[in-house]
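Appendix B. Chain record.
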Amino acid sequence: MTTPSGPARRAPAQAPSAPQAASTLSAPSAASSPGDRLEPIQLQVVDADGAPRPGASVTVEQARHAFGFGCTAFALAQPGDQPAAELERLWLDLFDTATLPFYWRWYEQTPGATDADRLRALATHLRHRGVRIKGHPLLWHTLAPTWLQEKDDQGVEDAIRARITREASGFAGLVDQWDAINETVILPVFEAEENAVTRLARARGRMHVIRLAFETARAADPTARLVLNDFDLTPAYEEVIEECLEAGVQIDAIGLQTHMHQGYRGEEQITEVLERFSRFGPPLQMTETTLVSGDLMPAHIGDLNDYVVDSWPSTPAGEERQADELVRHYRTVLAHPATESLTYWGLDDASAWLGAPAGLVRADGTPKPGYHALRELIREQWWVPRGEHRADENGVVHLQGFAGDYTVETDGQVREVTVPRGGLLSQQVPAPAPRRD
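Structure tokens predicted for this chain:
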């Protein structure tokens, strides 16, 4: 539906305080954490011989969430562009998962001439900063190349297979996951413009095209996770998913778009959507979320693309509303156990889809209240800050925290620990025995 118009930066480290008791943790609290996202963490400190170290001091700090807090990153890393550098700083201070644009019509405007070098440089730049990368999309009827229409159906299928193989294999190790195919509910009946992908779906069936996308991508990069993504959250999308599963198509995650230009859908409706789609089993990704900070799009507009205005400004009242709705939406999504990520569709108003004031940063580059509200939520309330903790009589440090990556330091030695969903129990942390002078 939409087109674009290092380690993830940590929360500022707090000055170490006196070592905390083994059973306490200053943040996050159960009250501020939605659902059952707080996990038990037990770290046993042992010496070089494997013996427990009672009373050992351990410094723990969160480095990244397992849950993907994402955003589009279409225009980051512009060399010598100071406004772009500031946007990147704001981006990295909040998000940890980037969606990059692989819209075929723009990626390969003429056969064989692609945007691969630029996107590879951007993906590498972000990976070096600890950002996870998603490619969007490998196949979509909208923005299919116009030159594809010159081919017959078999030629179109061959070109699709070559395109997906080239991107999925060429970006293996950089791109962790792909929207394998986008918006399949409308695919066979799409009439906004003629395109070769819809023509192929009409000739050989929607499931044939879906299978083509998934199986080709899977063969090209077996390690990448493949997502089925759609804006249509009606039972029609559920029927497509059921058809895929019955046909043996392996879907790694189900993508759900929530562009809320006409107003926040509310906790009840979002929860109902998550409940309906969680029944299939694969985890859910909220792939494209927007909330506007200006006047709402009129409710009678059926296709969001049809709303065209000369100016759509952000307003003070709209920004306060957006901040409140962002916090409510993120809490609702994170509270559902089936969700694994939430991607906001555009950091700034200057590049927002449809020219809407949907960014978290104004056109002049200054953050809106919504940016600060999310920053406080994700990097403060839902974050384990740097803190010193004391092991109990068995050498065990007991904590609570979110699934994700942590750094653990004992006696000047630092190691990385990954906490999965469900918690981490009895992870051994080797440390040298204390000196006895």
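Further analysis of this model is presented in Appendix C.
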